[in-house]
Write a structure and sequence with these properties.
By secondary structure, the chain is of the alpha+beta class. The protein contains four helices and six strands, in the order βββααβαββα. It has one domain: Ribosomal Protein S5, domain 2. α2 runs parallel beside α3. The longest helix is centred in the last third of the chain and has 15 residues.
């Protein structure tokens, strides 16, 4: 799976599955003096329905996708070494959603794991857990049906 990527993993929780790949440039851009944010994009479509090619290309990211990408970027960015300025792209993709388990924490774990198994220098890994309060008790990774 994803043989051309520097690292790829599939993380599963229940019937929810997230594929995450990471690719890093081999050369720095000329004149670049900063580490670009590892660009992350969360792509998903309704289970069983793949959008047509126009919508697949032209659809912008939603606010939720942007926030999840920031949740991935913020803890991972400081774990790349100083002086590492190669453009890096992390791509979590929801490949299966069971409508009970939210894939955002899976995307964070998958992003960390795929960078950790690649040859990209990284002082990770990171982990993520969703904490909810249900009936006055704290619950780790509550299902979507229990958290509503």
């Amino acid at each position: 799976m994803a043989r051309q990527a520097d690292g790829a993993v599939v993380v599963t929780y229940g019937e929810t599955k997230v594929l995450c790949t990471v690719v890093s440039a081999r050369k720095m851009r000329e004149g670049q003096d900063f580490f670009r944010s590892p660009s992350t994009t969360r792509r998903s479509s309704t289970p069983g329905q793949d959008p047509g090619s126009f919508f697949r290309r032209e659809r912008g990211t939603t606010e939720r996708e942007t926030l999840i990408c920031r949740l991935i970027d913020r803890p991972m960015r400081p774990l790349f070494p100083k002086g590492y300025m190669f453009e890096t792209q992390i791509m979590p993709t929801v490949i299966s959603a069971d409508m009970h388990n939210d894939p955002d924490t899976l995307a964070m774990v998958a992003a960390s794991a795929c960078v950790a198994i690649s040859d990209i220098p990284f002082a990770g890994p990171i982990a993520a857990v969703r904490v909810g309060r249900i009936d006055g008790k704290l619950v780790a990774n509550p299902t979507l049906s229990r958290s509503n």
